[in-house]
């Protein structure tokens, strides 16, 4: 076998990524110093990633092709997850001291999943808890850069989706070069994070001054930054066991808006930030995304009222809209333990896991754009089935989508659903083998929530629970599935084919 | 709104179908006479379908187009299900006397599903029990005629699948005209049914003569015919509560072979019957189908041995191969209550429900051909993702499949899986609303088993159970889903679009 992939280039770029990773690790060391917490957990991976990064970067690199990009993407998420786990192991506290748990938490972080194995939050240091948040923010940034700057040059499902967007929404016209676009959207991501942190902390400061002391009393600067990081990244980690439920109604409303914005196409947000509202009004995907959130909330709300869970009022609207937005945007925060709801609303949330927010954002799951294309194509095919001579392209926001792109979207959606099904069966059977009691619905939720990078599930892995009780074998498979799901399946599966390496 | 569908033609052909239906109803009346059971349950629908049939047939008919064919297919299955339910209601015994149950049983019959609401089999007359079997055989015949003679002229998923087969296996070359092909395969279907009945009854007669009295002591002529009818139709009704478990090992082995043959492409069987073995040896789909059955049996068998369910031996092999073949071929017979097995083998059976036998047979579910195309296309797309300039068609048994067909197969598979998911959620939520206790896995099984036309599920709807405890609302939705699933979704969904009726 002769390897024809230019792996040296991939490894060299990976070196740059590891070098960059040293910066947030150094910041966490500084934070630990500030809080008088141990520095070693951060200094060791800092030194390691800096040295490895500088070393690997020296390898001569060429212009990367599709294969080199696949290899880079797959190895980057894996490498950062491994380095990211080191602080948890070295801190050595609670469930996170266990290497499997540490890797799970780290992969859940960098993939913006938000499934946690933390048992008791209060025993961990503030820097360690902030590291979870930072990992997620970095993961969101990575996805954004990937979506615009890299994947769009490759001819795969996720890519052609971006191509579709490119065609219909002129991503490429934002700036002449992809790298420029990526930098621009990265800046927007940073700006939105800062804005949200300022808003949240602002509420905290404002409360006592306007005579409303319980406006946001718990939202300290630390928590404002921590939650801003994982809201815009639609990622969902919180340093609190009760998630956003630990904060006031005002904070919860701000976070609802933040999650909704975080799962909106960043190209639309960019135009919006420049005062151009036509793009967002013309976007069919945005209307579907908004419709799913509002429609889902109406259905869940009606069910909760029928169940007598809440009286009509602000609390009902907030609880419903928060949980539905959190799941549909794939954030995974919670303000109530929705695992205690009845079968109806729990199952609507479960279905919501498969939707996801808009393409071109940090959202995970299948994404509304894909479902929109699937639905439109299916409608078209019903039409052409009875009008065989008609030629009718599928149009998105006015522009025709080519049939190859449609096929790739079908493939991606189908493969996602099939992998979810197989993972569910694995979780049930593996838990039963290991003697861990998992309900079928708990397994379905955990499979969807990890593979689709949402976070909380049902049963012991519910929004106020933890994935810790799953057997190690299940947790390790979930680590792999979070990784595979976040980078949109193809890069990992391609690595498993012989033709990837050889021909 | 101006209706542009030539519904008169559809209704006229439906008249012919109802006229033909009078013949089996008359036969059941004769059987009732033979067993001194009430004749009225059969004479009323006999007279009704004969009169309605002759009357409707008089409506002038034109050459049917795609729309008229869709309308015909959808209304034919529905009309026969309604007429087929009349004997159960008029016989007025047990659970079947209830109209909802009667319709469920009849639809389960004509769609070759085999999900039953019968509580106690022994209280029903022999003619009524045989009517269930006959409905299934007619349903299987309908599907065979449809697959070859009708659907292949239409440009829908199921159709293009047959087209694919046409191209790769020369269905059209069997005889110059489609009608001729349909007649030929219908004859083969009848011949195989007769052969199987003769084999089963032959075992019964042979036993005492060769000094092996327990070769097949219970396999009377009645049971031989009853099971031959529902084996070749991969349908699964049995007049016995214990299904094929009521019979000897020898009978079970014959039935395994019968089910396997019933889910094999009838074009291949036709060539085989003429001594041509090359077709079957060259068929990639056959190899996959065989592989799924053997592979599934090996996995289930290994799990059962680990569970200590059976010692190594003939009983293990038979129990495993029977249950796996029954599920994969979508027949739905059982020889053991597999609902009592542990999570592992039960979940493998559950996954097996989604496979199905070969296209061009009476099998239901998604079918191996579609999965084969999905798998090959996915592999091809992984290849072209890393080799963007390569042009590589997907080949099946050597011939290239066109991309439109591939897209339709993806669409069909995805829509099936999505409908299954939504149906599962409906079953859980509706049961919880009605206060009927259904486990999540029970709901998953029942949803898959009805929509994919398999028959038994898990929990109270297990192989030795009944669907009777489900609320009426759930049962009526399942009636619709069996109907939608059996005629491959598109004809019913197309009827729901406005463009079907108007433009
Ligand atoms: K998440
Ligand atoms: K069946």
Automatic annotation (TrEMBL), chains A, B:
InterPro entries reported for this sequence: Cat_transpt, TrkH
Gene Ontology cellular-component annotations: plasma membrane
Membrane-spanning intervals of the chain: 12-33, 39-57, 69-90, 134-152, 184-207, 250-268, 288-306, 348-373, 409-429, 441-464, 476-496
Subcellular location(s) of the protein: Cell inner membrane
Top-level taxon of origin: Archaea
GO MF term list: potassium:chloride symporter activity
Membrane topology summary: Multi-pass membrane protein
Key words, A-Z: Cell inner membrane, Cell membrane, Ion transport, Membrane, Potassium, Potassium transport, Transmembrane, Transmembrane helix, Transport
Main location: membrane
Family assignment from sequence similarity: Belongs to the TrkH potassium transport family.
Protein name: TrkH family potassium uptake protein
Protein source organism: Halomarina oriensis
Lineage: Archaea, Methanobacteriati, Methanobacteriota, Stenosarchaea group, Halobacteria
